[in-house]
Design a protein that fits this description.
The protein has four helices and three strands. It is of the alpha/beta class. Strand 1, helix 1 and strand 2 form a beta-alpha-beta unit. The radius of gyration is 17 Å and the shape is elongated.
């Protein structure tokens, strides 16, 4: 987002035209969803539902904010090596299971997600809005 305050939303879900003082009318919002927003993980119903909601929220905001040139996209990581996934990836058999289910043949790294965020925030992504960028080494297509 730019340094200006984002527009507020009205009770009808759109941008409140009366709250534009100081708003420059451009920017970007990057939400973090998950591949689980498309393909649910077993025994993780609440997590799956919350990430599906982020996907829907991203699309709705992109539609509402596009006339103001505010791009809204989401990054949807698959299995990435983080503190949240350590419980699984520290067990050699489970780590190998994840690798075997990922066509690219490796675990995602935080740098993979960071590179996507840099792109989505850049001027090179000026015409990209409402997109869910899945970064999962092909897991969702396998």
């Amino acid at each position: 987002m730019t340094d200006s305050a984002p527009p507020s939303t009205s009770d009808k879900g759109g941008i409140d035209e009366t709250s534009r003082s100081g708003f420059q009318g451009s920017g970007t919002i990057i939400n973090i969803a998950s591949a689980a927003g498309f393909v649910p993980f077993p025994a993780r119903a609440a997590y799956n539902a919350s990430k599906g909601a982020v996907v829907s929220f991203t699309r709705a905001l992109a539609l509402d904010y596009a006339p103001n040139h505010i791009r809204v996209n989401a990054i949807c990581p698959g299995m990435v090596e983080t503190a949240m996934t350590r419980w699984r990836l520290d067990i050699p058999e489970l780590r190998q299971q994840v690798i075997d289910m990922t066509p690219w043949g490796r675990i995602g790294q935080p740098e993979d997600i960071a590179a996507a965020a840099v792109y989505l925030a850049s001027d090179e992504a000026d015409f990209v809005t409402g997109h869910m960028l899945v970064i999962d080494g092909g897991w969702t297509i396998s």
